[in-house]
Amino acid sequence: MTKRVVSFTVNDEAREITVAPNRSLLDALRTEAGLTGTKKGCDVGECGSCTVIMNGEPVNACLVLAVEAEGARITTVEGLQAADGTPHPLQDCFMQCGAAQCGFCTPGILVAAKALLDRNPAPTTDEIRFAIAGNICRCTGYSKVIDAIALAATAQEASA
Ligand code: FES
Ligand code: FES
Asked: What is the Å distance from ligand 2's center to 107 Cα?
């Protein structure tokens, strides 16, 4: 299978990778781009652990071909923290609220929550629930996750 060159911007950095045409964006991010923060759970679009933001929308990276990302702007969990390493308010609030246990789902939920707060800085509890409805967590029971996202929204509003 002839490989293709794909150029995109990930976490504000221009990247060029060479992949097979059937390579998923998830595998390309984790392997060719070396960004292993995005997790591979089901690999069939069921669990949300592979969520990244692509051109402003949360997507399951396991369901997107890497070649479809040509020219795209992508944010992975590695792109949430500030350039000086300061955690994103969502990351801070997840720590404060104890919103992670094993942590396998956490990168995908953080990215889905960031996409929510980017488009809706003051979401209701129902809007938070809807935004993370595609992210399965086997540990937390979701309450602390929802509390953390609500707290992050309040913190962001206060600092704006
Ligand atoms: S790994 Fe993509 S949705 Fe589960
Ligand atoms: S913290 Fe373990 S799956 Fe969510």
From this structure: 10
Per-residue pLDDT reduced to its tens digit, 21-72: 999 999 999 999 999 999 999 999 999 999 999 999 999 999 999 999 999 9
What domains are there in the chain, each with its CATH number?
4-79 (3.10.20.30), 89-159 (1.10.150.120)
pTM: 0.97
Ligand 1: residue of 27, 49, 106 to mutate (most ligand atoms within 8 A of CB) is 49
DSSP string, 90-126: HHHHHHHHT--SS-SSHHHHHHHHHHHHHH-SS--HH
Ligand 1 near 134 CB (within 6 A): no
Distance CA 95, CA 134 (A): 22
The DSSP letter of residue 87 is P
The best mutation among 46, 65, 138 to test binding of ligand 1, ranked by most ligand atoms within 8 Å of the C-beta, falls on: 46
